[in-house]
């Protein structure tokens, strides 16, 4: 349990650190292209989605990604949009409290996925305006790749 709490604190720190003064379409495309190049170079089978204010700014499925990855993306994004935290943060929070999103918040599992891979796009003095999401790798890997790419952009 202590390890989970320390991990949750690490995830919260990432959210506090990865704050933008703006997030333009050009920035979204840059992150998306970097994620595509990273995945292609390593032959990773994931799908990518970058959405701002409900508008899809970038979406791509790499070789080996499946239609299920697109569905996972939507479910992970809903978690970020509902709670303002990364989907991995919320999954970790749920493990700590010993309840699922459905049990605690009455959110259906077929619509909300508290699994790593969706990270909030946070604008300073504004808050969460969108998401960068990956689906196709193990959930912590999905999350860490998004964090790496956003960190490189800052």
Structural overview:
The protein has 154 residues and is an alpha+beta fold. It has a single domain, classed as Haem-degrading domain (Beta-Lactamase), CATH 3.30.450. It contains 6 helices and 5 strands; from the N terminus they run H-E-H-E-E-H-H-H-E-E-H. Strands 1-4-5-2-3 form a 5-stranded mixed sheet. The longest helix is centred in the N-terminal third of the chain and has 18 residues, at 25-42. The mean pLDDT is 97.
Number of helical segments? 6
Give the beta-strand count.
5
| Integer average pLDDT | 97
Structural category is alpha+beta
CATH topology: Beta-Lactamase
What strand line-up does the widest sheet have?
Answer: 1-4-5-2-3
Q: Name the CATH superfamily classification.
A: Haem-degrading domain
Helix content: 40-55%
Measured by DSSP, the beta-strand proportion falls in 15-25%
SSE run? HEHEEHHHEEH
Oligomer: single chain
Poorly predicted runs? none
CATH class descriptor name: Alpha Beta
Count of individual domains: 1
* Radius of gyration, whole Å: 15 Å
């Amino acid at each position: 349990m202590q390890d989970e709490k320390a991990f949750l604190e690490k995830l919260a720190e990432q959210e506090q650190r990865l704050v933008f003064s703006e997030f333009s379409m050009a920035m979204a495309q840059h992150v998306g292209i970097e994620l595509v190049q990273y995945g292609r170079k390593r032959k990773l089978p994931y799908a990518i989605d970058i959405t701002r204010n409900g508008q899809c700014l970038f979406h791509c499925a790499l070789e080996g990604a499946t239609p299920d990855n697109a569905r996972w993306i939507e479910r992970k994004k809903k978690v970020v949009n509902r709670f303002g935290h990364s989907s991995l943060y919320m999954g970790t929070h749920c493990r700590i409290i010993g309840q699922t999103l459905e049990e605690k918040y009455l959110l259906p599992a077929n619509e909300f996925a508290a699994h790593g891979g969706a990270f909030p796009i946070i604008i300073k003095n504004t808050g969460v305006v969108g998401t960068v999401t990956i689906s196709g790798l193990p959930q912590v890997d999905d999350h860490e790749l998004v964090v790496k790419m956003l960190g490189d952009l800052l």
